[in-house]
Amino acid sequence: MTGYSVDAMEFLQTVNQLERRFEEVTSPGALRKAMAEPESYDPVDHRLYVLAHDVFADTGWAMTIMVAVASFDGALVGQCKEFIQGCSSVVRKYGINVWLYGLANGSTVAMFTGEPSENTPMCIQTLHRSELVKRCRLKGPKRFGSKHNQQKVIREHCRQMHKLAAYTLMRWGDGSDPCIDTALMLLHEPAIGMCMLREDPKVLQVGAAPDMNFRRVVVALAELRARADEEFARESSAGSESGAESGSRTSLKTGQEPAQEPAQDDTQETAPDHVDYYKDPAYAQASARYLYDARRLIAGYRELWDRTTLDAAKVLVAIEQGEETSAGGASDDDSVWHNVVHLREVSRSLLGADNACELIEGFNERDVARFDQGVALLESMAEIVEMEGLPMLPIVMLDEQDGYMEKQAGVLPKSADDKRRKVSEIGEFLAGIVLARFPRGDVAKQCALALLDGEIVQYAKALRPMLRDDIEEVASAHT
């Protein structure tokens, strides 16, 4: 059993509303009106936009639906109708988890076959009108252009389908820990997230492999988190000297000696003005924990730099297969910060899954330049958290997205399509950070949903309930 419930009835009602609205705005009557009154015709139907994003989030399918309405292209309209009706049919017959598993699994299979899934939306990329018309009339992989472009489409579709699965569970799920855990895994460890969807008996009934070995990985990761929580609590209360030394503020790039500063307990020293902004002190504690983990993470990687270590991904595979019982090979009395599996998972929770690659792979390959690039990104994000608080991290990063993209890739995206994809990826990794780092509850859920849907204004609104009613006066007192 999955351990959570999903409101399929409300989901289906929304899909039905989407289908009806789509029929209305693409009807012959709507086309005649648009042609008769071109000056007053608005190609963007707000009601349809809201419904499309409610069902498909900020993905290529939501975009394709809107483009179909604006273009009145019969072939594209037909593809959208077929997909919407197909989604409704599967959910009505088998449930939401079966539908999500089918989409995620289909996109994953496409990664191996090299051919785009049949469920890949036409407007997963930005297309000129003439190119769109041409592709809509093609069949098979040719719909997505050259072989090189098909591979880009396949990768993007796979990312979007796992994102959609995570979004759907949060949007229509019961908000319980098992539900949020599955959504987080779909963002950070997609293969494990798909396995967690398979715990629904209906998914197994339609032919999914009944392999539950992934539970060993889930248990191992939970044990590592518990050990880290215990160590943090112990150092918070005792002011551990070792914690202060390894976590103190230094330049953390590889090969640089730590600056000589007075010893300080980094579990206690990170309490800036913004701690008074929240109704629940857990949000201020989440900011302090983010900074603590960031410093311990880099210190841990540096301490292991000259030692022979296992590859964390291979350790997880061995655990899943029952060949390894201790995650990362660390003994019980060894620091969790010398455990490569824990370092990998913390990297993802601090930076997001894709962003953490430079740090993780830089360490695995002992590539100083690549590792330092990951450190620089983490340092910049930690600085935002220290100055503004963890809840403000998404707002600042989305507001300064050009600077972030240049820091991450070295150059700004060249095309509008690349920039749109990058902005979507930023929202996705920030949603993962929110789910991993915010206190569990409705605020975290609504914030993550807003980020996955690319709605920064909605994110700011979702934050409001956790801020003190006199936030303006408190903020003014600190300035």
Automatic annotation (TrEMBL):
Residues 230-278 are annotated as: Disordered. Residues 235-249 have a biased composition (Low complexity). It comes from the Bacteria. This is Riboflavin-specific deaminase. It comes from Bifidobacterium tibiigranuli. The lineage of its organism: Bacteria, Bacillati, Actinomycetota, Actinomycetes, Bifidobacteriales.
